[in-house]
Design goal:
Elements (H helix, E strand, L loop, with lengths): L8 H13 L9 H33 L1 H9 L1 H37 L7 H36 L8 H38 L28 H8 L4 H8 L10 E5 L7 H15 L6 E6 L9 H9 L4 E6 L6 H7 L2 H19 L8 E7 L1 H7 L5 H7 L2 E5 L6 H8 L18 E4 L21 E5 L5 H4 L30 H9 L18 H9 L9 E2 L2 E2 H11 L3
Parallel strand pairs: 1-3, 2-3, 2-4, 4-5, 5-7, 6-7
Antiparallel strand pairs: 8-9
Keywords: Membrane, Transmembrane, Transmembrane helix
Protein name: Alpha/beta-hydrolase catalytic domain-containing protein
Organism: Corynebacterium sphenisci DSM 44792
């Protein structure tokens, strides 16, 4: 077998990719994130290095045949040069790694990350990622040797050019079934079984509601046990009329008991049956006689982030009804990877059916109809609308938070943003209807501090943090530098962040795993800003300092929500 040179192009590519992996991204990296980023970058760099090496050798044989033959005759000289190159590259690697510790601490301060980014944790993550890469490479070398042996055997019976391809097909055919059965299917099956068990639980601190205005109560058409874990949390949580009166300082007689309705995912129950159940619950509770009706599209597990419905209930003094349903019990990333149709279908089915019933009411007796969703819920919620114009035509307002970049309406609005406005906070048509904000102040002025003027109705608020990897992670990030990394960085993004082919995609993808382990108003945590966002969309009158609206001081309501959120 041919002797492998010390200067293996794949290893060189992996080491260069490591330099990029150590550069800063959006979220501080605990050691598992460092391990995953390092491993992914090294594998990508190795593949690129191997491909570049093959191309370089082919070009060398064609363009410089004598020099190529001479280099083969002097392996010791070649290896000495390779060792010197490796030593120099290792020194660079150590320097880049040491610098990354300072970057991680800077990012932690920017996004309110409590844990200190220690050198020990980063070293452990780097070592774990590199070990995983070397193990993967060893396995790949074994597969390569099997492929080479098969190629040699097949050349006796097949044309020389067909033998490598045939050998590759045989190896792939031999490996694919066990990999699919033992790795992919087993992993998905394990996640699915765990999700099903969690969905059957009653989450800590939740008890069956006794208010007739809530699904799961003894008066409800939807039994408590059918709601699923997150559905039970949705109807059990939130302020009651007495809480709202105490927080806003209102006469209890002027506050109504909020309505929360939910349809669980029950075996054999169709999406149409779920939406019909919601309609029956809306009529049972008198929801269409309330002043505000909010349709929330849930995330993969059926979760509706508590800050959104609670904000509406305080701002309307309980004069609201809020509905949602469960279409999956899988975590959002798994739900999106395994079934991309369900979130969109669920969002469209629920909103369309509610709006159909709403439209039958006299025009002057209809509640204000609001759409809302966060993360995967934002994608699903946008599935009810054909385009931005259709959204404005069919809602009285909407609040989307942490919407991923492949959400169709958000993508279109970002693409046609006003010249000069950045991708992280685009201004669309001067902010006439749609307003993007990385913080609440940007609902009224651009990220550059310029006033946006009159906000016409219907109003749509798009909350997206500059440091939220869920908002920015998309496949083209692997090969194309996005505008948000060409333009000025957001207020909570380190200025040293750069775009690297392949590597930045892995960095941002891994950042998403810890994107809620940061402070409120950063990463994928949308909490207190829900109060001013919904206040603006509902058309509430703001206080002079914009620290409150509709007689509700945001800080006081936020304290109640935070204190009473079970998690």
């Amino acid at each position: 077998m041919a002797r492998r040179p010390l200067a293996a192009p794949g290893l060189l590519g992996a080491e260069i990719a490591s330099w990029a992996a150590f550069t800063p991204s959006l979220i501080p990296r605990p050691w598992p994130s460092t391990a995953m980023t390092t491993f992914s970058a090294q594998v990508s760099g190795h593949i690129v290095g191997v491909a570049a090496g093959v191309a370089a050798r082919a070009a060398g044989r064609r363009l410089f045949p004598r020099a190529t033959r001479a280099a083969r005759r002097r392996p010791r000289t070649r290896d000495a040069v390779a060792l010197a190159a490796h030593a120099a590259m290792s020194a660079v690697t150590v320097g880049v790694w040491l610098r990354s510790i300072g970057h991680q601490r800077t990012i932690a301060a920017l996004v309110g990350y409590d844990e200190l980014a220690s050198a020990r944790a980063q070293l452990g993550g780097t070592a774990a990622g590199t070990a995983a890469f070397l193990a993967t490479r060893a396995a790949a070398v074994g597969v390569e040797r099997v492929h080479g042996g098969l190629t040699g055997l097949l050349r006796r019976r097949l044309p020389r050019g067909l033998a490598p391809a045939a050998a590759g097909a045989l190896v792939a055919a031999a490996l694919a079934p066990p990999l699919d059965l033992l790795v992919v299917r087993r992993a998905i099956g394990r996640v699915s079984r765990r999700a099903a068990r969690l969905n059957m639980r009653v989450l800590p601190g939740r008890v069956q509601p006794w208010e007739p205005s809530r699904s799961g109560s003894p008066w409800s058409l939807e039994p408590w046990h059918a709601l699923g874990a997150q559905g039970r949390a949705f109807v059990a949580d939130g302020p009651r009329a007495r809480d709202i009166a105490a927080v806003v300082g209102a006469d209890p007689r002027d506050v109504r008991e909020p309505i929360r309705l939910y349809a669980g995912r029950v075996p054999g129950r169709t999406l149409a049956a779920q939406t019909e159940l919601i309609i029956r619950e809306l009529h049972r509770t008198g929801a269409f006689r309330r002043g505000h009706l909010v349709v929330h599209t849930s995330t993969g597990t059926g979760w509706v982030p508590e800050w959104a419905p609670a904000a509406v209930e305080f701002l309307t003094r309980g004069d609201c009804a809020q509905v949602s349903l469960q279409y999956s019990d899988l975590p959002s990333p798994v739900a999106w990877l395994t079934d991309r149709e369900s979130p969109l279908a669920a969002g469209a089915a629920l909103f369309d059916r509610v709006r159909e019933e709403w439209a039958r009411l006299p025009a002057d007796a209809r509640p204000m109809l609001i759409a809302a969703g966060e993360s995967l819920g934002a994608i699903g919620g946008q599935g009810a609308f054909a385009d931005p114009a259709d959204l404005l035509a069919r809602v009285d307002g909407a609040v989307w938070s942490g919407s991923p970049p492949y959400a169709p309406i958000r993508r279109e609005l970002t693409r046609r943003r006003d010249p000069g406005s950045p991708e992280i906070a685009p201004v669309v048509d001067g902010g006439a209807h749609h307003r993007f904000a990385t913080r609440p102040e940007e609902l009224w002025e651009s990220i550059d501090g310029e006033a946006l003027g009159h906000w016409a109705r219907p109003r749509v608020a798009w909350l997206q943090h500059a440091s939220d990897p869920i908002v920015w992670c998309e496949t083209p990030l692997a090969w194309r530098r996005p505008d948000w990394l060409r333009e000025r960085r957001g207020r909570d993004v380190i200025t040293a962040m750069r775009w690297w082919p392949l590597v930045t995609f892995w960095q941002v993808l891994v950042d998403g795993l810890t994107s809620v382990a940061v402070g409120d108003g950063h990463g994928h945590r949308y909490e207190e800003e829900m109060l001013p966002a919904f206040a603006a969309v509902l058309g509430a009158e703001f206080d002079a300092d914009r620290g409150g609206a509709a007689g509700v001081r945001f800080a006081r309501a936020a304290r109640w929500i935070r204190r009473n959120s079970v998690g």
